[in-house]
From TrEMBL:
Name of the protein in its database record: TPC2 protein
Transmembrane segments: 26-44, 65-84, 126-145, 165-182, 194-219
Gene designation per UniProt: Tpcn2
Topology within the bilayer: Multi-pass membrane protein
Keywords per UniProt: Membrane, Signal, Transmembrane, Transmembrane helix
Organism: Probosciger aterrimus
GO MF terms, alphabetically ordered: monoatomic ion channel activity
One cellular-component annotation, GO: membrane
Entry-linked Gene3D superfamilies: 1.10.287.70
């Protein structure tokens, strides 16, 4: 029963690869039939669980309620999407976001729920580090605006360089991952090589110090909560 449940959960979640917009598109009829089959299996598993569980215990368990709500939402969304498709009205399958609920809330997924609870308990404790990181990012963005905002610099595409505060915040946030390095600093570096010191300081503080600190706090607290549970 556990193997069958996991198989249909995996099948249900993998439908996102074949539904529009899809990596490997299949006809709507095929994906809808497979989804209905998966939902019937989930409903049957839930019904079987209800037969072997006292009624007052079954209805007090929020996991069972979540599964039933997820099944109803998926069927409702599937029916609405099918009707709109008949009338050639473009819509989106919003119920895809509830599919992981089946993975987490079935009785067989005890270890997954344990991991999720550890993550949930870890989040409040990493908030302080995250707030410090955001404060550093905002302060560096403000310094960048003051340093480069009045220089009338332009990017390689001819766009204004570091003149909008929110765009600066986003560019420096991406720089933390080094995804846009060194392109983001080249207009300033071409203007004066001394401006490279600003970006070097930013990378040292935020990428090497804050990201390492953030990872250490996440790992230690997650490990602590996982041992307790």
């Amino acid at each position: 029963m556990r193997t069958a449940t996991y198989f249909f959960i995996f099948l249900n979640m993998s439908l996102a690869l074949f539904e529009e917009p899809a990596v490997y598109p299949l006809p709507f009829l095929v994906t809808s039939v497979v989804e209905v089959l998966c939902l019937l299996v989930f409903f049957g598993r839930l019904t079987h669980f209800a037969k072997v569980t006292p009624r007052n215990v079954f209805w007090k368990d929020t996991k069972n309620i979540c599964i039933m709500v997820a099944i109803l939402l998926s069927l409702t969304d599937l029916a609405i999407y099918g009707v709109l498709r008949i009338y050639n009205v473009r819509s989106i399958r919003w119920s895809r976001i509830v599919r992981p609920i089946f993975l987490v809330n079935f009785a067989e997924s005890r270890q997954i729920r344990r991991a999720f609870r550890s993550i949930r308990n870890t989040l409040p404790e990493i908030t302080y580090v995250f707030l410090l990181f955001m404060f550093s990012l905002l302060m560096f963005s403000l310094m960048a605006l003051k340093l480069f905002g009045e220089r009338n610099l332009q990017t390689a595409e001819g766009l204004p360089y570091f003149r909008n505060y929110l765009e600066i915040v986003f560019d420096l946030y991406v720089l933390v991952t080094t995804a846009n390095s060194p392109d983001v600093m080249m207009p300033a570096f071409d203007f004066s090589s001394w401006y490279a010191l600003f970006f070097i300081a930013f990378v040292i503080v935020n990428t090497y110090i804050f990201m390492s600190l953030f990872l250490a706090v996440v790992y230690n607290n997650y490990k602590k909560h996982l041992k307790v549970m």
